[in-house]
Each structure stands twice: as structure tokens, then as C-alpha cells.
């Protein structure tokens, strides 16, 4: 997750912040059949979007029983990074898991 966010920042972007069901559908059209990192993490103990969007007031689409901060990874640690699953639901996963990601950038219209 951190490498994905770093890559996005190098491109003057950030991991995608999903603000609506419509945006999520659009992203899924371009990521299926793969899971993908999104710009949501609770590495400091509370969920935060990378662009500062208010998590409590924002769109959410967690899978049932998620986020669960599962501790059973053989590499140790919990699950502090959010991914968009192929079924459209969000899951918290081990942040060092290698997988695809989606970057988002502000479009400048002049």
C-alpha cells in the first residue's frame, strides 16, 4: 500500500478516494478482475482518506464483518490498509500485500 501511494505521489496524484457509488462502479470497470488498493488507511488507529476527506461523513462500502483488523497473517501485524475487492466491497488487508492500485489526480480545467 505504501509503495502504491508513493508511486501515485510521484505522479502528482494519490491513491483513489471513493466518494460515491458511481465513482466506485467506474473504478471497478477498470480494475476487475483484480483487487486494488484504495486511499484509505487506519495505520494510526483511525480510518483516514489520503486526501483528508472526512471518513465519518464519507461514502463507505465495507464487506460484512469488515474492517476486522485480522491478526492472523504469518508475517505479523494487523490489517491497516483498504482494498476494493472484485465484488465491489471493501476489505482491510495487510499493508505489505502486493497488488494493483488506482491513482487519482485533480483535473485542472482552464
Automatic annotation (TrEMBL):
Which InterPro entries does this chain map to?
C-type_lectin-like, C-type_lectin-like/link_sf, C-type_lectin/snaclec_domain, C-type_lectin_CS, CD209-like_CTLD, CTDL_fold
Please give the PROSITE patterns that the UniProt record associates with this protein. C_TYPE_LECTIN_1 (PS00615), C_TYPE_LECTIN_2 (PS50041)
- Record SMART domains: CLECT (SM00034)
Pfam families, A to Z: Lectin_C
Q: Which SUPFAM superfamilies match?
A: C-type lectin-like (SSF56436)
List each copy of the C-type lectin domain by range: 1-104
- Record keyword Disulfide bond present: yes
Keyword Disulfide bond part of the UniProt annotation? yes
Instruction: Please provide, alphabetically and separated by semicolons, the GO molecular function terms listed in this UniProt record.
Output: carbohydrate binding
Q: What is the protein name stated in its UniProt record?
A: Asialoglycoprotein receptor 2
Q: Which organism is it from?
A: Mustela putorius furo
Q: What is the lineage of its organism?
A: Eukaryota, Metazoa, Chordata, Craniata, Vertebrata
Amino acid at each position: 500500500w505504501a509503495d502504491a501511494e508513493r508511486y501515485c505521489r510521484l505522479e502528482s496524484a494519490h491513491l483513489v478516494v471513493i466518494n460515491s457509488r458511481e465513482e466506485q462502479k467506474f473504478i471497478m470497470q477498470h480494475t476487475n478482475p483484480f483487487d486494488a488498493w484504495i486511499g484509505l488507511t487506519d495505520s494510526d488507529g483511525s480510518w483516514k482518506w489520503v486526501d483528508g476527506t472526512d471518513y465519518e461523513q464519507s461514502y463507505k462500502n465495507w464487506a460484512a464483518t469488515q474492517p476486522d483488523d485480522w491478526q492472523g497473517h504469518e508475517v505479523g501485524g494487523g490489517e491497516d490498509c483498504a482494498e476494493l475487492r472484485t465484488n465491489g466491497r471493501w476489505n482491510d488487508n495487510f499493508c505489505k500485500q502486493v497488488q494493483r492500485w488506482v491513482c487519482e489526480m485533480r483535473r485542472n480545467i482552464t
